[in-house]
Protein backbone atom coordinates (compact mmCIF):
# COMPACT_ATOMS: atom_id res chain seq x y z
CA UNK A 1 0.00 0.00 0.00
CA UNK A 2 1.39 3.43 -0.95
CA UNK A 3 0.49 6.71 0.70
CA UNK A 4 0.91 9.40 -1.89
CA UNK A 5 -0.74 12.61 -0.78
CA UNK A 6 -3.24 14.21 1.53
CA UNK A 7 -6.95 14.36 0.72
CA UNK A 8 -9.52 17.06 1.42
CA UNK A 9 -9.93 16.02 5.08
CA UNK A 10 -6.13 15.78 5.51
CA UNK A 11 -6.53 11.99 5.68
CA UNK A 12 -3.88 10.14 3.72
CA UNK A 13 -5.14 8.96 0.34
CA UNK A 14 -4.67 5.25 -0.03
CA UNK A 15 -4.09 3.25 -3.20
CA UNK A 16 -5.31 -0.13 -2.00
CA UNK A 17 -7.38 -1.14 1.00
CA UNK A 18 -6.42 -3.90 3.38
CA UNK A 19 -7.75 -7.44 2.93
CA UNK A 20 -7.43 -11.12 3.88
CA UNK A 21 -3.83 -12.29 4.26
CA UNK A 22 -4.43 -15.98 3.54
CA UNK A 23 -2.55 -17.47 0.54
CA UNK A 24 -4.10 -16.94 -2.90
CA UNK A 25 -5.05 -20.59 -3.29
CA UNK A 26 -6.98 -20.66 0.00
CA UNK A 27 -8.74 -17.39 -0.89
CA UNK A 28 -9.66 -18.89 -4.28
CA UNK A 29 -11.06 -22.11 -2.79
CA UNK A 30 -13.13 -20.17 -0.26
CA UNK A 31 -14.33 -17.73 -2.90
CA UNK A 32 -15.43 -20.53 -5.24
CA UNK A 33 -16.90 -22.98 -2.73
CA UNK A 34 -18.36 -20.69 -0.06
CA UNK A 35 -18.69 -17.32 -1.76
CA UNK A 36 -21.32 -15.76 0.52
CA UNK A 37 -19.68 -16.80 3.77
CA UNK A 38 -16.34 -15.54 2.53
CA UNK A 39 -17.79 -12.20 1.39
CA UNK A 40 -19.60 -11.64 4.69
CA UNK A 41 -16.59 -12.56 6.80
CA UNK A 42 -14.21 -10.35 4.83
CA UNK A 43 -16.51 -7.32 4.76
CA UNK A 44 -17.11 -7.65 8.51
CA UNK A 45 -13.39 -7.67 9.10
CA UNK A 46 -12.27 -5.06 6.56
CA UNK A 47 -15.32 -2.88 5.81
CA UNK A 48 -16.71 -1.37 2.61
CA UNK A 49 -13.45 -1.63 0.66
CA UNK A 50 -11.10 -4.59 0.83
CA UNK A 51 -8.55 -6.31 -1.37
CA UNK A 52 -8.80 -9.98 -2.39
CA UNK A 53 -6.34 -12.18 -4.22
CA UNK A 54 -7.50 -15.11 -6.35
CA UNK A 55 -5.13 -17.57 -8.03
CA UNK A 56 -4.58 -16.71 -11.70
CA UNK A 57 -6.23 -13.29 -11.32
CA UNK A 58 -4.79 -9.85 -10.50
CA UNK A 59 -5.52 -8.43 -7.06
CA UNK A 60 -8.97 -6.86 -6.89
CA UNK A 61 -10.81 -4.44 -4.63
CA UNK A 62 -14.27 -5.48 -3.42
CA UNK A 63 -16.51 -2.44 -2.90
CA UNK A 64 -19.81 -2.33 -1.02
CA UNK A 65 -20.29 1.37 -0.33
CA UNK A 66 -23.23 2.98 -2.22
CA UNK A 67 -21.45 6.33 -2.58
CA UNK A 68 -18.45 4.60 -4.11
CA UNK A 69 -20.73 2.55 -6.37
CA UNK A 70 -22.39 5.79 -7.52
CA UNK A 71 -18.99 7.29 -8.33
CA UNK A 72 -18.10 4.20 -10.37
CA UNK A 73 -21.41 3.99 -12.27
CA UNK A 74 -21.48 7.70 -13.08
CA UNK A 75 -17.78 8.11 -13.99
CA UNK A 76 -16.86 8.98 -17.57
CA UNK A 77 -16.96 5.79 -19.67
CA UNK A 78 -13.24 6.19 -20.43
CA UNK A 79 -12.34 5.87 -16.72
CA UNK A 80 -12.74 2.08 -16.69
CA UNK A 81 -12.38 -0.95 -18.88
CA UNK A 82 -14.95 -3.64 -18.18
CA UNK A 83 -14.67 -5.80 -21.30
CA UNK A 84 -11.00 -6.49 -20.53
CA UNK A 85 -12.04 -7.95 -17.18
CA UNK A 86 -14.51 -10.30 -18.87
CA UNK A 87 -12.02 -12.22 -20.99
CA UNK A 88 -12.83 -15.41 -19.08
CA UNK A 89 -16.17 -15.35 -20.96
CA UNK A 90 -14.38 -15.45 -24.33
CA UNK A 91 -14.54 -19.26 -24.79
CA UNK A 92 -18.23 -19.25 -23.89
CA UNK A 93 -19.51 -16.21 -25.79
CA UNK A 94 -17.00 -15.71 -28.63
CA UNK A 95 -14.55 -12.93 -29.41
CA UNK A 96 -17.15 -10.48 -30.80
CA UNK A 97 -19.46 -10.53 -27.77
CA UNK A 98 -20.03 -6.95 -26.57
CA UNK A 99 -19.36 -8.10 -23.00
CA UNK A 100 -15.65 -8.53 -23.87
CA UNK A 101 -15.20 -5.08 -25.40
CA UNK A 102 -14.87 -1.46 -24.34
CA UNK A 103 -15.00 1.92 -26.04
CA UNK A 104 -16.55 2.45 -29.47
CA UNK A 105 -17.17 -1.19 -30.37
CA UNK A 106 -18.98 -1.83 -27.07
CA UNK A 107 -21.09 1.31 -27.39
CA UNK A 108 -21.94 0.54 -30.99
CA UNK A 109 -22.99 -3.06 -30.28
CA UNK A 110 -25.15 -1.87 -27.36
CA UNK A 111 -26.85 0.61 -29.68
CA UNK A 112 -27.51 -2.15 -32.21
CA UNK A 113 -28.98 -4.51 -29.59
CA UNK A 114 -30.94 -2.10 -27.41
CA UNK A 115 -33.96 -1.59 -29.74
CA UNK A 116 -34.81 -5.29 -29.35
CA UNK A 117 -35.31 -4.71 -25.62
CA UNK A 118 -37.22 -1.47 -25.86
CA UNK A 119 -40.50 -1.07 -23.91
CA UNK A 120 -42.73 -1.19 -26.98
CA UNK A 121 -41.07 -4.36 -28.29
CA UNK A 122 -41.55 -5.93 -24.90
CA UNK A 123 -45.32 -5.88 -25.22
CA UNK A 124 -45.06 -8.09 -28.29
CA UNK A 125 -43.18 -10.72 -26.27
CA UNK A 126 -45.82 -10.80 -23.49
CA UNK A 127 -48.22 -13.29 -25.09
CA UNK A 128 -45.32 -15.56 -26.06
CA UNK A 129 -44.10 -15.64 -22.45
CA UNK A 130 -47.56 -16.56 -21.11
CA UNK A 131 -48.15 -19.23 -23.80
CA UNK A 132 -44.80 -20.91 -23.15
CA UNK A 133 -45.44 -20.87 -19.40
CA UNK A 134 -48.83 -22.56 -19.94
CA UNK A 135 -47.23 -25.23 -22.16
CA UNK A 136 -44.71 -26.06 -19.45
CA UNK A 137 -47.33 -26.02 -16.68
CA UNK A 138 -49.41 -28.52 -18.70
CA UNK A 139 -46.58 -31.05 -18.42
CA UNK A 140 -46.65 -31.00 -14.61
CA UNK A 141 -48.37 -34.02 -13.08
CA UNK A 142 -50.37 -33.61 -9.90
CA UNK A 143 -48.50 -34.87 -6.84
CA UNK A 144 -45.22 -35.37 -8.72
CA UNK A 145 -42.14 -33.63 -7.33
CA UNK A 146 -40.16 -31.54 -9.84
CA UNK A 147 -37.29 -29.07 -9.77
CA UNK A 148 -38.52 -25.48 -10.00
CA UNK A 149 -35.15 -24.39 -11.39
CA UNK A 150 -35.29 -26.93 -14.21
CA UNK A 151 -38.87 -26.01 -15.06
CA UNK A 152 -38.00 -22.29 -15.04
CA UNK A 153 -34.95 -22.99 -17.19
CA UNK A 154 -37.18 -24.76 -19.70
CA UNK A 155 -39.48 -21.72 -19.78
CA UNK A 156 -36.74 -19.10 -20.00
CA UNK A 157 -34.80 -21.01 -22.68
CA UNK A 158 -37.94 -21.41 -24.79
CA UNK A 159 -38.78 -17.73 -24.30
CA UNK A 160 -35.35 -16.50 -25.34
CA UNK A 161 -35.17 -18.87 -28.33
CA UNK A 162 -38.63 -17.86 -29.50
CA UNK A 163 -38.01 -14.12 -29.09
CA UNK A 164 -34.60 -14.32 -30.75
CA UNK A 165 -35.49 -16.62 -33.66
CA UNK A 166 -39.25 -16.27 -33.81
CA UNK A 167 -39.46 -20.10 -33.81
CA UNK A 168 -40.39 -22.74 -31.31
CA UNK A 169 -40.12 -25.88 -33.37
CA UNK A 170 -38.00 -27.57 -35.99
CA UNK A 171 -34.82 -29.60 -35.90
CA UNK A 172 -32.43 -26.68 -35.44
CA UNK A 173 -34.51 -25.19 -32.66
CA UNK A 174 -34.68 -28.56 -30.85
CA UNK A 175 -30.94 -29.09 -31.21
CA UNK A 176 -30.18 -25.59 -29.93
CA UNK A 177 -32.51 -26.06 -26.97
CA UNK A 178 -30.89 -29.36 -26.07
CA UNK A 179 -27.33 -28.15 -26.55
CA UNK A 180 -27.86 -24.93 -24.57
CA UNK A 181 -29.40 -26.99 -21.73
CA UNK A 182 -26.44 -29.42 -21.79
CA UNK A 183 -23.92 -26.58 -21.90
CA UNK A 184 -25.49 -24.95 -18.86
CA UNK A 185 -25.40 -28.30 -17.06
CA UNK A 186 -21.74 -28.82 -18.00
CA UNK A 187 -20.83 -25.54 -16.32
CA UNK A 188 -23.46 -26.05 -13.63
CA UNK A 189 -21.91 -27.33 -10.40
CA UNK A 190 -19.56 -25.20 -8.28
CA UNK A 191 -16.69 -27.53 -9.12
CA UNK A 192 -17.45 -27.87 -12.83
CA UNK A 193 -17.94 -24.12 -13.25
CA UNK A 194 -14.43 -23.53 -11.85
CA UNK A 195 -12.96 -24.29 -15.27
CA UNK A 196 -14.75 -21.28 -16.71
CA UNK A 197 -13.22 -19.03 -14.06
CA UNK A 198 -9.77 -20.62 -13.83
CA UNK A 199 -7.72 -20.79 -17.05
CA UNK A 200 -5.42 -23.30 -15.35
CA UNK A 201 -8.19 -25.94 -15.57
CA UNK A 202 -8.81 -25.34 -19.29
CA UNK A 203 -7.26 -28.52 -20.69
CA UNK A 204 -8.87 -30.36 -23.60
CA UNK A 205 -8.46 -33.98 -22.54
CA UNK A 206 -11.17 -35.31 -24.83
CA UNK A 207 -14.92 -35.46 -24.57
CA UNK A 208 -14.91 -36.85 -21.05
CA UNK A 209 -12.96 -33.93 -19.58
CA UNK A 210 -15.18 -30.96 -18.57
CA UNK A 211 -13.23 -28.49 -20.74
CA UNK A 212 -13.10 -30.85 -23.76
CA UNK A 213 -16.83 -31.51 -23.49
CA UNK A 214 -17.53 -27.80 -23.18
CA UNK A 215 -15.46 -26.95 -26.30
CA UNK A 216 -17.34 -29.54 -28.40
CA UNK A 217 -20.75 -28.35 -27.21
CA UNK A 218 -19.80 -24.75 -27.95
CA UNK A 219 -18.60 -25.69 -31.44
CA UNK A 220 -21.91 -27.43 -32.19
CA UNK A 221 -23.88 -24.39 -30.99
CA UNK A 222 -21.75 -22.09 -33.18
CA UNK A 223 -22.47 -24.26 -36.21
CA UNK A 224 -26.22 -24.12 -35.59
CA UNK A 225 -26.17 -20.34 -35.13
CA UNK A 226 -24.05 -19.84 -38.28
CA UNK A 227 -26.43 -22.03 -40.27
CA UNK A 228 -29.46 -20.03 -39.09
CA UNK A 229 -27.81 -16.69 -39.97
CA UNK A 230 -26.78 -17.92 -43.45
CA UNK A 231 -30.21 -19.31 -44.19
CA UNK A 232 -31.86 -16.03 -43.19
CA UNK A 233 -29.45 -14.08 -45.39
CA UNK A 234 -30.01 -16.41 -48.33
CA UNK A 235 -33.81 -16.18 -47.98
CA UNK A 236 -33.51 -12.39 -47.86
CA UNK A 237 -36.72 -12.24 -45.82
CA UNK A 238 -36.55 -9.66 -43.05
CA UNK A 239 -40.25 -9.41 -42.30
CA UNK A 240 -40.04 -11.23 -38.93
CA UNK A 241 -40.38 -9.43 -35.60
CA UNK A 242 -37.72 -11.49 -33.84
CA UNK A 243 -34.50 -10.13 -32.36
CA UNK A 244 -32.28 -11.77 -35.01
CA UNK A 245 -34.19 -9.97 -37.77
CA UNK A 246 -33.76 -6.65 -35.95
CA UNK A 247 -30.06 -7.36 -35.48
CA UNK A 248 -29.61 -8.22 -39.16
CA UNK A 249 -31.34 -5.01 -40.23
CA UNK A 250 -29.45 -2.79 -37.77
CA UNK A 251 -26.71 -0.57 -39.19
CA UNK A 252 -23.95 1.29 -37.35
CA UNK A 253 -23.18 4.99 -37.82
CA UNK A 254 -21.09 4.21 -40.90
CA UNK A 255 -24.07 2.35 -42.39
CA UNK A 256 -22.48 -1.06 -41.89
CA UNK A 257 -24.54 -4.09 -40.79
CA UNK A 258 -23.20 -6.59 -38.24
CA UNK A 259 -20.90 -9.27 -39.68
CA UNK A 260 -21.84 -12.95 -39.50
CA UNK A 261 -19.36 -13.60 -36.68
CA UNK A 262 -20.67 -10.58 -34.73
CA UNK A 263 -24.25 -11.75 -35.16
CA UNK A 264 -23.32 -15.26 -33.98
CA UNK A 265 -21.44 -14.09 -30.88
CA UNK A 266 -24.12 -11.55 -29.87
CA UNK A 267 -26.79 -14.23 -30.31
CA UNK A 268 -24.80 -16.52 -28.04
CA UNK A 269 -24.39 -13.65 -25.55
CA UNK A 270 -28.15 -13.05 -25.43
CA UNK A 271 -28.96 -16.77 -25.24
CA UNK A 272 -26.55 -17.25 -22.38
CA UNK A 273 -27.08 -14.00 -20.46
CA UNK A 274 -30.81 -14.12 -21.02
CA UNK A 275 -31.94 -17.49 -19.82
CA UNK A 276 -29.90 -18.95 -16.97
CA UNK A 277 -30.10 -15.66 -15.05
CA UNK A 278 -33.87 -15.28 -15.42
CA UNK A 279 -34.47 -18.97 -14.64
CA UNK A 280 -32.49 -18.66 -11.41
CA UNK A 281 -34.41 -15.53 -10.38
CA UNK A 282 -37.73 -17.29 -11.09
CA UNK A 283 -36.76 -20.39 -9.09
CA UNK A 284 -35.89 -18.16 -6.12
CA UNK A 285 -39.16 -16.27 -6.47
CA UNK A 286 -41.15 -19.53 -6.41
CA UNK A 287 -39.21 -20.61 -3.35
CA UNK A 288 -39.91 -17.43 -1.38
CA UNK A 289 -43.55 -17.20 -2.43
CA UNK A 290 -44.23 -20.80 -1.39
CA UNK A 291 -42.24 -20.75 1.81
CA UNK A 292 -44.03 -17.63 3.10
CA UNK A 293 -47.84 -18.10 3.03
CA UNK A 294 -48.53 -14.43 3.86
CA UNK A 295 -46.52 -13.32 0.81
CA UNK A 296 -48.42 -15.70 -1.46
CA UNK A 297 -51.76 -14.59 -0.02
CA UNK A 298 -51.00 -10.89 -0.60
CA UNK A 299 -49.74 -11.57 -4.12
CA UNK A 300 -52.84 -13.54 -5.06
CA UNK A 301 -55.11 -10.88 -3.61
CA UNK A 302 -53.39 -8.18 -5.65
CA UNK A 303 -53.40 -10.31 -8.80
CA UNK A 304 -57.08 -11.25 -8.39
CA UNK A 305 -57.99 -7.57 -8.02
CA UNK A 306 -57.34 -7.28 -11.78
CA UNK A 307 -60.16 -9.75 -12.55
CA UNK A 308 -60.08 -12.68 -14.95
CA UNK A 309 -57.70 -12.53 -17.96
CA UNK A 310 -56.02 -9.31 -16.81
CA UNK A 311 -54.16 -7.02 -19.19
CA UNK A 312 -50.52 -8.12 -19.24
CA UNK A 313 -49.16 -4.60 -18.82
CA UNK A 314 -51.43 -4.11 -15.78
CA UNK A 315 -49.82 -7.17 -14.12
CA UNK A 316 -46.37 -5.71 -14.57
CA UNK A 317 -47.44 -2.51 -12.77
CA UNK A 318 -48.79 -4.16 -9.58
CA UNK A 319 -46.81 -2.65 -6.68
CA UNK A 320 -46.67 -5.70 -4.36
CA UNK A 321 -45.84 -8.00 -7.28
CA UNK A 322 -42.99 -5.67 -8.19
CA UNK A 323 -41.81 -5.57 -4.56
CA UNK A 324 -41.71 -9.41 -4.40
CA UNK A 325 -39.59 -9.55 -7.57
CA UNK A 326 -37.23 -6.85 -6.25
CA UNK A 327 -36.89 -8.54 -2.85
CA UNK A 328 -36.12 -11.84 -4.64
CA UNK A 329 -33.32 -10.13 -6.59
CA UNK A 330 -32.10 -8.33 -3.46
CA UNK A 331 -31.79 -11.18 -1.00
CA UNK A 332 -29.88 -13.58 -3.29
CA UNK A 333 -28.86 -11.51 -6.31
CA UNK A 334 -28.47 -13.81 -9.30
CA UNK A 335 -24.90 -12.59 -9.76
CA UNK A 336 -22.87 -11.49 -6.75
CA UNK A 337 -20.80 -8.85 -8.53
CA UNK A 338 -21.19 -6.49 -11.44
CA UNK A 339 -18.54 -6.85 -14.13
CA UNK A 340 -15.13 -5.89 -12.81
CA UNK A 341 -14.16 -2.31 -13.63
CA UNK A 342 -10.44 -1.95 -14.45
CA UNK A 343 -9.12 1.55 -13.79
CA UNK A 344 -7.94 3.15 -17.03
CA UNK A 345 -7.18 6.67 -15.78
CA UNK A 346 -6.46 7.45 -12.09
CA UNK A 347 -9.68 7.95 -10.15
CA UNK A 348 -10.38 9.26 -6.68
CA UNK A 349 -13.17 7.33 -4.92
CA UNK A 350 -13.82 8.40 -1.36
CA UNK A 351 -10.55 7.82 0.58
CA UNK A 352 -8.81 6.07 -2.26
CA UNK A 353 -7.03 7.10 -5.39
CA UNK A 354 -7.01 4.06 -7.62
CA UNK A 355 -4.23 3.77 -10.14
CA UNK A 356 -4.53 2.44 -13.74
CA UNK A 357 -4.71 -1.33 -13.78
CA UNK A 358 -6.50 -1.63 -10.41
CA UNK A 359 -9.49 -4.00 -10.54
CA UNK A 360 -12.65 -2.74 -8.81
CA UNK A 361 -15.50 -5.18 -8.08
CA UNK A 362 -18.77 -3.56 -6.97
CA UNK A 363 -20.40 -6.27 -4.82
CA UNK A 364 -24.16 -6.49 -5.36
CA UNK A 365 -24.63 -9.06 -2.59
CA UNK A 366 -22.84 -7.05 0.12
CA UNK A 367 -24.69 -3.81 -0.70
CA UNK A 368 -28.00 -5.69 -0.74
CA UNK A 369 -27.25 -6.90 2.78
CA UNK A 370 -26.16 -3.64 4.36
CA UNK A 371 -28.06 -3.39 7.62
CA UNK A 372 -28.22 0.44 7.31
CA UNK A 373 -30.23 0.03 4.10
CA UNK A 374 -31.98 -3.30 4.63
CA UNK A 375 -32.51 -4.02 8.36
CA UNK A 376 -32.77 -7.77 9.08
CA UNK A 377 -31.38 -8.25 5.63
CA UNK A 378 -31.57 -12.06 5.74
CA UNK A 379 -35.36 -11.90 6.00
CA UNK A 380 -37.55 -11.80 2.91
CA UNK A 381 -39.64 -8.63 3.31
CA UNK A 382 -41.12 -7.23 0.07
CA UNK A 383 -42.56 -4.29 2.06
CA UNK A 384 -39.10 -2.71 2.10
CA UNK A 385 -39.65 -1.79 -1.53
CA UNK A 386 -43.04 -0.26 -0.78
CA UNK A 387 -41.85 1.71 2.25
CA UNK A 388 -38.97 3.45 0.52
CA UNK A 389 -37.31 3.92 -2.82
CA UNK A 390 -33.76 2.67 -3.12
CA UNK A 391 -31.25 4.45 -5.33
CA UNK A 392 -29.61 2.60 -8.26
CA UNK A 393 -26.47 2.43 -6.10
CA UNK A 394 -28.28 0.77 -3.19
CA UNK A 395 -30.26 -1.78 -5.23
CA UNK A 396 -28.61 -2.87 -8.47
CA UNK A 397 -29.21 -6.55 -9.31
CA UNK A 398 -28.64 -5.63 -12.99
CA UNK A 399 -25.46 -3.60 -12.44
CA UNK A 400 -25.26 0.00 -13.64
CA UNK A 401 -23.63 2.77 -15.63
CA UNK A 402 -22.63 2.13 -19.23
CA UNK A 403 -22.61 -1.66 -18.66
CA UNK A 404 -26.07 -1.96 -17.11
CA UNK A 405 -27.80 -5.16 -18.15
CA UNK A 406 -29.38 -4.82 -21.59
CA UNK A 407 -32.05 -7.36 -20.68
CA UNK A 408 -33.17 -5.70 -17.41
CA UNK A 409 -36.67 -4.70 -18.56
CA UNK A 410 -37.08 -7.98 -20.43
CA UNK A 411 -36.09 -10.04 -17.36
CA UNK A 412 -38.43 -8.15 -14.99
CA UNK A 413 -41.26 -8.44 -17.52
CA UNK A 414 -40.67 -12.16 -17.98
CA UNK A 415 -40.42 -12.78 -14.22
CA UNK A 416 -43.75 -11.09 -13.57
CA UNK A 417 -45.66 -12.76 -16.40
CA UNK A 418 -44.31 -16.25 -15.69
CA UNK A 419 -45.09 -15.94 -11.96
CA UNK A 420 -48.56 -14.49 -12.60
CA UNK A 421 -49.40 -17.32 -15.03
CA UNK A 422 -48.19 -19.97 -12.58
CA UNK A 423 -50.06 -18.44 -9.64
CA UNK A 424 -53.28 -18.08 -11.62
CA UNK A 425 -53.23 -21.53 -13.25
CA UNK A 426 -51.83 -23.84 -10.56
CA UNK A 427 -51.45 -24.43 -6.89
CA UNK A 428 -47.96 -25.45 -5.85
CA UNK A 429 -46.31 -26.35 -2.59
CA UNK A 430 -42.71 -26.91 -1.59
CA UNK A 431 -41.84 -30.62 -1.42
CA UNK A 432 -39.30 -30.09 1.36
CA UNK A 433 -39.74 -28.11 4.49
CA UNK A 434 -36.23 -26.78 5.02
CA UNK A 435 -34.45 -23.60 4.08
CA UNK A 436 -32.90 -23.62 0.62
CA UNK A 437 -29.46 -22.02 0.33
CA UNK A 438 -27.63 -20.60 -2.69
CA UNK A 439 -24.59 -22.16 -4.40
CA UNK A 440 -22.60 -21.19 -7.43
CA UNK A 441 -24.05 -22.52 -10.69
CA UNK A 442 -22.13 -21.32 -13.74
CA UNK A 443 -21.89 -17.59 -13.17
CA UNK A 444 -25.10 -17.38 -11.10
CA UNK A 445 -25.99 -18.10 -7.46
CA UNK A 446 -28.76 -20.68 -7.71
CA UNK A 447 -30.82 -22.53 -5.08
CA UNK A 448 -29.16 -25.76 -3.96
CA UNK A 449 -31.29 -28.73 -5.09
CA UNK A 450 -33.18 -26.51 -7.53
CA UNK A 451 -36.21 -25.98 -5.19
CA UNK A 452 -38.29 -29.17 -5.13
CA UNK A 453 -41.93 -28.39 -5.72
CA UNK A 454 -45.27 -30.29 -6.16
CA UNK A 455 -48.40 -29.26 -8.04
CA UNK A 456 -51.47 -29.84 -5.87
CA UNK A 457 -54.06 -28.35 -8.23
C1 LIG B 1 -32.76 -11.76 -13.70
C2 LIG B 1 -32.11 -11.71 -14.83
C3 LIG B 1 -30.81 -10.98 -15.08
C4 LIG B 1 -29.88 -10.49 -14.20
C5 LIG B 1 -29.93 -10.54 -12.68
C6 LIG B 1 -28.83 -9.86 -14.98
C7 LIG B 1 -27.73 -9.22 -14.44
C8 LIG B 1 -26.73 -8.60 -15.18
C9 LIG B 1 -25.59 -7.90 -14.62
C10 LIG B 1 -25.30 -7.73 -13.13
C11 LIG B 1 -24.83 -7.45 -15.65
C12 LIG B 1 -23.51 -6.65 -15.53
C13 LIG B 1 -23.81 -5.18 -15.41
C14 LIG B 1 -22.66 -4.32 -14.90
O1 LIG B 1 -21.51 -4.77 -14.85
O2 LIG B 1 -22.90 -3.15 -14.53
C15 LIG B 1 -25.49 -7.84 -16.89
C16 LIG B 1 -25.03 -7.55 -18.15
C17 LIG B 1 -25.65 -7.97 -19.31
N1 LIG B 1 -26.86 -8.64 -19.42
FE1 LIG B 1 -28.04 -9.25 -17.88
N2 LIG B 1 -29.12 -10.00 -16.31
C18 LIG B 1 -30.33 -10.67 -16.43
C19 LIG B 1 -31.01 -10.97 -17.61
C20 LIG B 1 -30.58 -10.65 -18.86
C21 LIG B 1 -31.33 -10.87 -20.08
C22 LIG B 1 -32.76 -11.41 -20.14
C23 LIG B 1 -30.54 -10.48 -21.13
C24 LIG B 1 -30.79 -10.48 -22.61
C25 LIG B 1 -31.67 -11.20 -23.22
C26 LIG B 1 -29.29 -9.98 -20.56
C27 LIG B 1 -28.24 -9.50 -21.29
C28 LIG B 1 -27.12 -8.87 -20.75
C29 LIG B 1 -26.03 -8.32 -21.56
C30 LIG B 1 -25.93 -8.37 -23.08
C31 LIG B 1 -25.12 -7.75 -20.65
C32 LIG B 1 -23.79 -7.05 -21.01
C33 LIG B 1 -23.98 -5.55 -21.08
C34 LIG B 1 -22.70 -4.82 -21.48
O3 LIG B 1 -21.63 -5.41 -21.50
O4 LIG B 1 -22.80 -3.62 -21.79
N3 LIG B 1 -29.35 -10.11 -19.18
N4 LIG B 1 -26.65 -8.53 -16.57
TrEMBL record:
Residues 1-22 are annotated as: Disordered. Residues 1-12 have a biased composition (Polar residues). It comes from Floridaenema fluviatile BLCC-F154. Keywords: Heme, Iron, Metal-binding, Monooxygenase, Oxidoreductase. Its cofactor is heme. The keyword 4Fe-4S does not apply. It holds the Pfam family p450. This is Cytochrome P450. PANTHER family: CYTOCHROME P450, CYTOCHROME P450 12A4, MITOCHONDRIAL-RELATED. The keyword Oxidoreductase applies. Belongs to the cytochrome P450 family. Coiled coil: none annotated.
Amino acid sequence: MVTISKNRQTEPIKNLPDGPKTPRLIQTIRGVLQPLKYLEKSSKEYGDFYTVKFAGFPTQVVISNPQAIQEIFTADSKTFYAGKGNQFLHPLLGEHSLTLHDGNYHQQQRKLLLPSFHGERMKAYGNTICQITEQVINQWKLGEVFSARQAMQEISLKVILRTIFGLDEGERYDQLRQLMGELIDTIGSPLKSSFILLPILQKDLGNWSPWGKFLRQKQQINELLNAEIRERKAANDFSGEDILTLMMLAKDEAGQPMSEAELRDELMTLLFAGHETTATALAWALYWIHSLPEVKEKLLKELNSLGENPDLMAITKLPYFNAVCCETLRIYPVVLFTFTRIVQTPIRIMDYEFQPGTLLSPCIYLVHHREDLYPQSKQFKPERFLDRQFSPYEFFPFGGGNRRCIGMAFAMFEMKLVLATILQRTELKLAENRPVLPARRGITMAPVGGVKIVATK
